[in-house]
Amino acid sequence: MMAASGGGGMGEKVDDKNVELFLGKLLRWGVLLAALVVFFGGVWFVAESHDVPQNYRTFRGEPVELRAVPQIVDQAIALRPLGLIQFGLLLLIATPVARVLFSVLGFALERDWMYVVFTLLVLALLIYTLTSRSGI
After folding, report:
1. Half-sphere exposure of 129 (CA within 13 A, CB side)
2. Each residue's pLDDT tens digit, 4-21
């Protein structure tokens, strides 16, 4: 690839430093966005249920409508507080997965095929553990 004469353009040469900077920004913004969504949903949840007595002696897991990704997205789009909290947690989980995915792209652009293969194995393992019922 040819290096661009300016700074930060699309034609700029891909190297380790550029990939690392991009991945660092991706992680920072992903965690920040997830934290903001969880915080907003949490504040909204507390505001709506501040006068409802809570029983913390018995553990109750998430409601049925918040146990699958499509349902969580639907609840978040409907601006339901618990849906927003769950969606923020999904964003938090998706952030390192996106990092691995973009690492594959970065290694491919650098033509570092050995690392592409290793990173694809890591990505496959991540996807398997996130989607299987038993994990590893």
Report:
1. 9
2. 444 444 555 667 788 888
